[in-house]
Amino acid sequence: MKIVSYNVNGLRSALSKGLLDWVAEAAPDVLCLQEIKASREPMDVSGFEKLGYHAYLHPAQKPGYSGVAIFSKAEPKAVVHGCGQSCYDDEGRVLRLDFENVSVLNTYMPSGTSGPERQAFKVEWMHFFRDYVARLRANGSTPPLLIGGDFNCCQTAIDLHNPKANHNSPGYTPEERQWFADFLADGLVDTFRHHHGEATGHYSWWSYRAGSRGRNVGWRLDHWLADAALQPRLTGAGLLPDVVHSDHCPAWVEVQ
Predict the structure, then answer these.
(1) Residue 22 contacts residue 243 (beta carbons within 8 Å)
(2) Fewer CB within 10 Å, N- or C-terminus of the chain?
(3) CB contact at 8 A, 220 and 193
(4) For 163, how many CA atoms within 13 A lie in the half-sphere containing its CB?
(5) Number of domains forming the structure of the chain
(6) pLDDT tens sequence across 135-180
């Protein structure tokens, strides 16, 4: 099963840039999208359905903001919209599909870049999310988790181009880095590092400013974390920086 995560920075915008053509060619079994930015009108997903996908959307209450979606070739055993906490569910932060042997959890974490208040909200969310995942993993009826999406944070210095200058920037604050280390220590595997070790220069987001993408001045904000029980079944993981419909690029993982 090949599963792709992609922050499309507006689904309608990405579709206008040829997203469906890329999906048809790449043919992931499951496609997790973040920041779909749905409006008040129902979003047209017929193009995905024509490609054989079942469509599941969890938009934010605020039009044109946040929101997540999952498109799956196989029909899941269960679909769970949200995490049961209205302050996060109103922003469309979590969507989960359970299959026979794996549960795919799609998340779009807050960025914190708009000011201290949102950074505080982000940190609260991160601690809530860690507890939420722990509860899911402790629930014997939930299959082993694959957690993917735009985490809006980096794990270590090799995950961004200029760590010294961004030591206290949202996405790389000491508190966020500690959270990430603690989250992995709970029994999760960073699938990219599992397959690529300490390789540098691999990013999934670039600013639109100053030709950052062309110069590869980026951050690895998009991740696939796997329950340690899935580690023997992980056959590949990576990023697709040449796929350009957004300021992010897709992150993929493959599991048997």
Answers:
(1) yes
(2) C
(3) no
(4) 16
(5) 1
(6) 999 988 899 999 999 999 999 999 999 999 999 999 999 999 999 9
150 has catalytic annotation: yes
- Angle formed by the axes of helices 116-138 and 174-185, nearest 10°: 0
pTM (predicted TM-score) = 0.96
The maximal CA–CA distance of the chain, rounded, in angstroms, is: 49
Quote the tokens at residue 94.
Answer: 């979590």
**Pairwise CA distance, residues 34 & 150, whole Å:** 7
Q: What is the identity of the amino acid at 154?
A: C
| Residue 194 burial by Cβ neighbours in a 10 Å radius (0-12, 13-18, 19+) | middle
Nearest alpha carbon to residue 110 among 87, 144, 131: 87
The answer for residues whose C-beta is within 8 angstroms of residue 139's C-beta and 6 or more apart is: none
In angstroms, rounded to a whole number, what is the distance separating the alpha carbons of residues 99 and 96?
10
CA dist 201 and 215 (Å) reads 11
Q: Which of 53, 108, 132, 172 is catalytic?
A: 108
Which residues form the domain of 118? 2-255
Please pick, among 6, 53, 98, 150, the residue that the annotation labels catalytic. 150
CATH, residue 220: 3.60.10.10
247 is catalytic: no
- Token pair of 154 as six digits: 């980096």
